[in-house]
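Quick start: load a record and inspect it. Here is Alpha/beta hydrolase:
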Amino acid sequence: MKIVFLHGIGDGDPKSSWLEGLDRGLEQAGFGAVNRDMVIAPHYSSFLTTNGIGAKLPPVTYKPRDDSASRRGFERRQARVQRILGLEGGVRTFGFHRVPGQVLAPLQQAAIGSLSLLDLQQVRKYVREEPVRGAILRHILDHLPTSGEIILIGHSLGSVIAIDLLDHLPENVHVRRFITIGSPANVQAVHDSSERLLKKFPYGRVDDWSNFLDVGDVVTGGRGLATTFPGAQDFVIDNGASHASGAYLGHRALAMLVADLLYPSKEIAIRTSDIAVRLNDNEASVLLMLHYAHAVHRNLKDKALAERYRHALDIVQDNIVAQIEQAASVSGQPVAVELQQLSNGQLPMIPHRWEIHEVVGELVVLALTNIIDPYELEIGNAPRDALADIAVELGFVRQLGKTVSTALEDVQKCLDSRGGVPWGRVITAAVGLALVAAGPVGLMLAAPAAAAGGAAIVGGLAAFGPGGMIGGLGMLGGLAGAGAAVAAGAAVGGGAPDQPITDSTTLILRVSTEHARKMLGLPHDEALWYQLADVETKLSARINRLTAFSDPKSGQLTQLQAAKSTITKLMAFMLDRGLAPRAIEAATGEKPLADIEKELVDFTALT
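Running the structure step on this input writes:
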């Protein structure tokens, strides 16, 4: 493997300060210096300062008919890079476009204009004069091997040249890691009066692309490259607001990316034990989540859609495995054999540890959760069909999953005359707590700051692995269990105790779960009616107070009224389906309980 470094503007870094910086970063990370025989650092400053030098652009060598599969593999490798850097301090990703474009562009133009005349000419020559581009690219290609693997690093203008080089590389050269630092490639002033470089990213040729910037580096404008180049993954570091290549490459996080390939360490060995280690509840729920996702995949009829879903699921599963390995490394404790199998790329069997009433709550949440979030696919009825499959895997009959599906559809019809469950879409639980499949563990609860109700729900939940990530469906099943709505009741409006729930999804989950349990002939929680009534009363009180002064169509009033409408419909549904307390049914004159019992399924036949 070779390290190819493309320098920025100026004299071409004849003293190799970039390499000194990289050696410094590697030493800080506990690795040795780079073997100089591995380094290729062509100099091309003279091409930018001398008139009359030119050549035809080298041919484009990357012309795939369809690289969609390559892109999905690329995204999986990008996720791995993000996990590596996630373990390093002082690295931030996403959300650093701090300066509006209309403000930033003049600043970057001024930054380029403030360079010396020589440097400004170098920039303009490369991006605007095709013969110069051709001569530089051909000069660099003459220094590269015709086959093999390289780590490609581009600094400043060198990053622009490196980006331009990617689809001109020899066909048998593979870029194991592409790193850009201090890049101005997103600057509009660089691209003015010139064709955009690299119109199509070579996903099949480049394993991953990490772009590093310091927000104080004016040349970058504090912005990454992802807005201009879809293949780039941006990371912010603090190198003292320096634009120097040595300052960037001397950062530990960046050096770790280089060391990951130069000095590959053995995979984390998960400690085993002669004594069997039992899965805890969260770990078991993670396995249940993965099995359900694989069942969804099996029920997708469209092959292309199924392939995209599988690749997205692979990333989720990779994240879970990485978290398991990290947790095992930190704790030094042996793990359950199922987690060892998962770490080795196998999907272990689901343990049969849930009772039937617990399974109902788990399936309700699973059915309405997008396991592959943040990716969103229209997967039709596959989540519904997967419920029956997962019921069998849990040791029950298919009818159990079908009954849960019917219960969800019944509740949805009562809320929306159009009917139909939004199968496969991510939902939002009580008080803005999103059920999301993201992060190292898979499913977790993402609570907003100061969400007292959210804290009430998640406070007693066990963390899965380091960093406090919460894993599995075990705690999410709690949203469909007794008391969740009450626990969330104080979370709206800054946590004031007299402000009710405005997001009623938790109660929808609760009603769906109790309805399914009743359909299966299982005991159900009649006290849920009183929780709904309490929320309805608080919503009404809040609406009445706000109506006195707020605009009729204000956002808060609209949200509260929609929530109240949902609660009212859920209460009517409970009365209609015999889910309310008997005393309430008698007082409202609903149909006799005997009529409702005819609809029940004999749950003893399900086990």
